[in-house]
Amino acid sequence: MEELINKIKNNITLSPQAKEHIYSISKERTISKGEILIRQGQAVKKTFFVIDGCLRSYCTDKNDKEHTLQFAIKGWWISDFIAIYNNEPAILTVECITDSKIIEFNAKDLDEIHSLFPEFEAFQRKNLERHVVSLHKRILNQLKLTAPERYNLFLEQYPDIEKHTPNYHIASFLGITQQSLSRIRVEKARK
Amino acid sequence: MEELINKIKNNITLSPQAKEHIYSISKERTISKGEILIRQGQAVKKTFFVIDGCLRSYCTDKNDKEHTLQFAIKGWWISDFIAIYNNEPAILTVECITDSKIIEFNAKDLDEIHSLFPEFEAFQRKNLERHVVSLHKRILNQLKLTAPERYNLFLEQYPDIEKHTPNYHIASFLGITQQSLSRIRVEKARK
DNA sequence: TGATTTTCTTACCATAGGGTAATTTTTATC
DNA sequence: GATAAAAATTACCCTATGGTAAGAAAATCA
User: Fold this and answer.
1) What is residue B53's DSSP assignment?
2) Could you write out the three-class secondary structure of B77-112?
3) Residues of A in contact with B144 (CB under 8 A)
4) Residues of B with CB below 8 A from A172's CB?
5) How far is the CA of B181 from the C1' of D4 (A)?
6) What are the extents of the domains in chain B?
7) From start to end of A32-126, where are the E strands?
8) In this predicted model, what pLDDT tens digit does every residue of A113-141 receive, in sequence order?
9) Would you say the C-beta of A181 is within 7 Å of strand C?
């Protein structure tokens, strides 16, 4: 829990009341590999902050193939923000991929926090700005890089994830099949 | 200018002083097709709100091939947010693709507006939330849809852009070549 | 440790989309 | 309206990645 408090304090001044409020609306949870936190098709009530471990969000297409939108590690937020924003059932599944420690919030509580404690607006805005920038980069990389280039970049950006998640999850994040990733890895090792 | 004011008023209560301030930091401009507003490699000082017309932002890869990150039409914001956020030279070029009317801001002024008039925090947060959701969708579509599917979706989502922008811009947004798009269009017409 | 399951690799062929270049069509300009 | 420029199409062949399937390796579990 301190991880989140510190993260907030890096951005805004946190009053004791606000801090108290955060405690009151959050729940620290330990979850294990394989647990599903949000399931495609169901209502999305929660948003998660990762203290330790790794989660991912993915959707499935008409052929049941999985496509990973996000890996979330220490210090990241994860949920189905599309569903929350549009107030629709989840199109994503959020899954725990290594035993993890998370903080759970009701999405509704997190939204209301801004009217209760307006100082959170700035915190949230900065989170969102950073998020937008990383999504812009992701889109540009997808457009301009080859699959091997994207894989190398992934290894730089998520050095820890690679150890814990199967290759087919990484492939589904990069937009290729696990077989292609396998070939890329062979090619890379050969050099 | 009223377009922007109304947009703001849809989200927050706008005090006369705040309104006055917006006028003081903005400049309405008419720009013509082909004008470059932000140039790759140069410092990014401005952010633009589109009143009418169409702009796009793109980057070029090592082979000088263009990749469109965004089309901005009436009511959208456009700039190189990656560069602004990281305080780096532009990696994007922002170009006017049909004669347009825009409102120009200094990115710095737009950032400072939040400390001067905290009521803007909520407005900006909501903008960013919407933006994040649309980027999530874009990434998922890129991962799970075929090129023809993405093109059809594009036509639904940007019915006006199609009329005004050359196909190779659309292709570069979809992540395919103009030749592929041409084939897709032929195939589509054949049905 | 042995059995089972999961993950990864490899091989084969199929296909979507790319690259170059020529041609046609459309749009802009004088 | 004639000319030039820009954009779109088409044709050809090529390459990267996909799909299926089988086998190898690694991880898990009893």
Assistant:
1) E
2) EECCHHHHHHCCCCCCEEEEEEEEEEEEEEHHHHHH
3) 59, 61, 65, 67
4) 143
5) 26
6) 2-123
7) 36-38, 46-60, 66-73, 77-78, 93-106
8) 999 999 999 999 999 999 999 999 999 99
9) yes
Residues A54 and A47: beta-carbon distance below 8 Å: no
CATH superfamily assigned to domain A2-119: Jelly Rolls (2.60.120.10)
DSSP class of B179: H
Give tens-digit pLDDT for B82-124. 999 999 999 999 999 999 999 999 999 999 999 999 999 999 9
* Contact (CB, 8 A) for A76 and A30: no
Of B122, B135, B80, B103, give the one whose Cα is nearest residue B30. B103
A141 burial (CB, 10 Å; 0-12 / 13-18 / 19+) is middle
Please state the length of chain A. Answer: 191
**Pair A107, A79: CB distance under 8 Å:** yes
The answer to whether A143 CB is within 7 Å of strand C is no
Backbone angles phi, psi at B93, to 5 degrees: -115, 135
Fold for the domain defined by B2-123: Jelly Rolls (2.60.120)
The answer, as to whether pTM is greater than 0.85, is yes
A contact test, residue of B121, B130, B131, B138 with most A CBs within 10 A: B121
The per-residue pLDDT for range A27-80, each reduced to its tens digit, is 999 999 999 999 999 999 999 999 999 999 999 998 889 999 999 999 999 999
Q: Nearest-CA neighbor of B179 among B168, B169, B187, B190?
A: B168
- B2 token code pair: 């009223």
